[in-house]
Amino acid sequence: MSGTDVTVEQAGAHVGVVRLNRPPNNYFDTALIVGVAEAYEALDSSGWCRAIVLGSEGRHFCAGLDFSANAGQDIAALYRAALRLFAAPLPVVAAVQGAAIGGGCGLALSADFRVATAQSRFSANFSRLGFHHGFALTVTLPAAVGSQAAADLLLSGRRVRGEQALALGLCDRLAGEDDLLADAIAYAGELAAAGPLAVRSIRATLRTGLVEEARLAMEHEYAEQTRLRDTADFAEGLRAAAEMRDPVFRGE
Fold first, then answer.
1. Quick check: 30 and 19 in contact, CB under 8 A?
2. Which of 20, 121, 133, 157 lies at a C-alpha separation of 20 to 30 Å from 241?
3. What is the pTM of this model?
């Protein structure tokens, strides 16, 4: 199966590979997240797939939402599509090359596991934009790194590279630059080699309540994003990011 922005292929007997195809930065919008959700659902119903690798073409895994190109984006619709990723029943391993920034970090953390490289970069950079985080990072980031580290990452918006990401729990394994996808497929293959009924059952138990938690989190995140969208600080954050300089916030 293939499409303009999301492609799906089989890797081995029981692993499906879903790839974002908007290089180099793989910015998402609602349509792209819907495409990923549909790919997950198609693989679930395929009869052969037992585990999924989420990857991307280009320099970066995903740089989140391009605010300059998506000023009128319906974020509520985007988050409804994102909820389908959390509801999908197959385990997902994300192959994170380059940067997973903002909503891209949220997308990476929607997966069960992450394989990265020493050069990979994770950042929930919303505070550096004068904005509120989204994509259910309220739930997924503390689950991955703990509440204290999550507070540090969300409030500072700082970037974390591969080795520190592994130590924190942002990723689960490190691979060489040239081996990233192969290692992620091998990791998914380990999951696919276990009893498929047991894997689904255990995963569902471990994720009890997650979909509802993510839904409530995204509702609150969306409300806060809506409140902050028209502030001078958010406008300054976007300008500073475009101009590659430090923002000067005024609290207004």
1. no
2. 20
3. 0.96
